[in-house]
Amino acid sequence: MNNFPGVAIDRVLKALGDNGLSYKRSGGGYEAQCANPAHPDAKASMSVRQGNLGAVIHCHVCGEDGKEDILAGLGLTKADLFDQPLERPERPQVVATYIYEDADGNEQYRKDRREPGKDGKSKDFRQYRIVNGNTVWSLKDVTRIPWRLPQVIAAVKDGREIYWNEGEKCVLALEKLGLVATTAGSVGDWRPSMAAYFEGAAKVTVIADNDEPGIKHARQVAAALKGRAREIRIVRPAVDRPKADVYDHLAAGHTVEELIDITDQRSHLRSVPPPHDVPPTDGTAARQPESEPAEPVRAGADLGSLFGLKGCTAPRGFRITGRGVDASTGRDDNPWARIAYAPLAVTAAYEDPDGEQSVQLSWTDRGRTVSKVVARDVAKRGRELVKVLGSAGLPVIEGDARAVERYLAEFEAANPSGIPREMLARNLGWQPDGTFVSSPESGIKLEVRYDEQRVPSQAFGTAGDFDDWRQAVSRLEPHRVPRIVIAAALAAPLLRPLGLPSFTVDISSRSTKGKTTALQCGCSVWANPSENAAAISNWRGTAFAIEKRFNLVRGLPTFLDETMAVSDEGIIDYVLYQLPMNQGKDRSGGYAGALPWETILLSSGERTALSYTRNQGAAARTLCTTEAPFGDDGDTAREVHDAVFANYGHAGPRFAELVRKGLARDGGRDRLRARHKELAALFRGDNAMTARRAPMVAVLALAEAMACKASILPYEPLPAETWKQTFTASNATDNQPEMAMDVVREYIAGHSFELWPGQDDRPPLRGWLGAVKVNSEGTFIALMPERLRTILSDSGYSLDAVLDGWISAGYLSSSVDRGKVTYRVVTRFDGRTARCFQFTPQALTLSDNGQEAA
Questions:
Q1: Cα 586 from Cα 595, distance rounded (Å)
Q2: How much is the average pLDDT of 679-696?
Q3: How many CB atoms lie within 10 A of CB 172?
Q4: Res. 614 pLDDT band, cuts 50 70 90
């Protein structure tokens, strides 16, 4: 492989020149000025020379510890030092950890800076908390605070200037100069409530990144600080390069005094805090001509800084203050009456795919912003609104409900262009416009239809690292059942583009061989597999509750564990039959009807789901395996279990995006369907049942192949022969006779005391179930015909329907009576004789796939 020597050195030299740094030839390389902003000097203390793979840089003053700062000062990354790009991307490494502390110095959360970042980025960040020694990869419900908060509070008290930046690295650069600096982190981490910590500050300088978004963000911060700090200044770096920050500014040799002032004088940011009783913004003042200054806003009551509503004003007849919302009374002695006890506004309007509209209401509560979505018809009925949002802290009492109802309607009418209007998702998965919502964090607002769906929906999200998840599931390569479960979890987004109905994949065995762990592996593709996260439920519950689970998704899997936990066996029969209809049963009496869904149900339990149904239509839409998921490899099961609990939710969204992009290409859907059709033909098998199941097997195989090719899965796809052996060969779950035989075996095992000869000669209360016969061929068990019919009937099976299958399988003994073969064999017990169905040793022995030892 050619390394093209000298390419990286040319890149470094050009960067030196672009940043005004001198260099000269020296021996076999170059001597140059150091680019580290913490080491400004005019001497050539840095060497640049050719190495085996590219450029080698070294400052004799900064040493190796300063190399990252040197690269940043040049605007380069480590990858730029290689003459030829590496064949494999460098794994992200944590290069810095920033700890956010509260006012008392107590750690609240952390932020890791990683280089290089994922997906080709030069860097990325991960935020998390340490709770009882455990890492929690979420800042949900955590109050965001400025970095270096104790130092900020001390600076406010001492009257020192404070510098606000975008990014912790900029803060560190300023701190090296002895200055007090802070940040929220990235733009997305900024919260208007952070402005409260600057109350009484002498001077705050807000440093904007050198681009439009950076300047826009700086103005947002400055607006939030208005009235809190006595002097506010907005500046930008002198480095005339897009996205340049104060770190680049200092690295280029500029001083803090050379930051360029871009403060908008018209915004009156250089101001003295207003008197405590400044008149608030009201509808009349907001409509004054531009030549007349509007009434100043009480600190913290500005709609832009509080709720992000640019250009919105209070409607005529109302005013918004830092204490709440007032309505005009029309009286001279008392012109205003309080109707809300905190600032309140309509901050977004939504429309779901069915055309139903909702609004988002926002208010402040002890320095934080609370936002809730309600149906528009609820917002139009004040008392109903108080009832629905009262427990969420809506700052309105029932006596003012009518006035608030009118205020919200007037607010929307007064600000038609200022209130953002967006589509609202009612389910996870495919949306009508072709987008795919993989979690509530996908960027599209999700508002589920039922409260029971809210907790499961929150389980869909990410934690940990995708590479760590891949490394964990790579250990599954020799275990086909967990791999099939993962393939099924990935395959759910393919149902819609392939035009396939929903179906079930069921894994069962009578021993603890990792069924639940296999289900958790599949769940980790999209969601948190923990028992407490509710992405995996069990069969305990009503059919309607299960339908609500299905209704949550259109192209994601559903997980139900423990078939034996079902309270009514008819529920499993109903679910397996109804699932492929892609909608629930119409319900009357006030219940919602015909809930739609698109999902692959992943079920597990000690007893196969098909043993609960006698409907062959359900059997044709269910893929079953009774193979123990991990066999005797308990170590792998435990290790993978722990790993997917820490790293989840990455593979599914990647696969959904892969599918979406493929469909967007010309002929993409046709190519996808052609591949699926080829695989379905390969898996048709040799009977009608396997032919009906072939499209389902094909979509699982197709999903795994696509994910392996895209490096989402870390192993090679399962061979076609493995899929055939698992689902398209003759299988015990393919026929009702075998499942009925399972019922008989279980009943005999639990009622052996009813078989003659018993422990004593007295018959049981219900009479003898049958008799045990032992001879040289083995043990035979004869059952009374009527008792056998009742046992099967109670489990939903007909003796007449399964009798031929038992005979073909050799499960029943036969005899000849008057020249005819009969399977009711004369059996003697307890001094009597009766014609019984006599089961052979073959019938009473589980097949290899079903043995507990398997």
A1: 8
A2: 88
A3: 18
A4: low
Phi, psi of 111 (to 5 degrees): -145, 125
**β-strands 161-165, 124-131 pairing:** unpaired
Which neighbouring-strand residues pair with 538? 561
Average pLDDT of the residues of the chain: 85
Task: State the Cα–Cα distance between residues 382 and 391, nearest whole angstrom.
Answer: 15
Distance CA 481, CA 204 (A): 61
Q: Interhelix angle for 382-389 vs 401-414, to 10°? A: 100
Separation of alpha carbons 275 and 2, rounded Å: 72
Q: Residue 474 contacts by C-beta under 8 Å, 6 or more apart in sequence?
A: 714, 715
Cβ count within 10 A of residue 458: 19
* Beta strands 558-561 and 536-538, pairing class: parallel
**pLDDT tens-digit readout, 790-799:** 998 887 677 8
| pLDDT value at residue 546 | 94
What does the alpha-carbon distance between residue 439 and residue 456 come to, in Å, rounded to a whole number? 10
pLDDT at 161 over 90: yes
pLDDT in tens, 726-780: 886 545 444 577 778 888 998 998 898 899 887 666 788 888 999 999 999 899 9
Residue 310, classed as helix, strand or coil, is coil
Radius of gyration of the chain (CA): 35
The H-or-E segment that residue 674 falls in is: helix 668-682
Return the sign of the alpha-carbon dihedral for residues 507, 512, 514, 519: positive
Q: What is the DSSP string of 196-259?
A: GGGTT-SEEEEEPPSSHHHHHHHHHHHHHHTTTSSEEEEEE-S--STT--HHHHHHTT--GGGS
HSE-CB for 620 with a 13 A CA cutoff: 12
Residue 572 has pLDDT above 60, yes or no: yes
Q: How far apart are alpha carbons 185 and 187 in whole angstroms?
A: 7
Average pLDDT over residues 535-548: 91
Q: Report pLDDT for 593.
A: 53
SS (H, E, C) 43-100: CCCEEEEECCCEEEEEECCCCHHHHHHHHHHHCCCHHHHECCCCCCCCCCEEEEEEEE
Task: Report how many helices (DSSP H) and strands (DSSP E) the chain contains, helices first.
Answer: 28, 36
Residues composing the chain: 854
* CA dist., res. 786 & res. 793, Å (int): 10
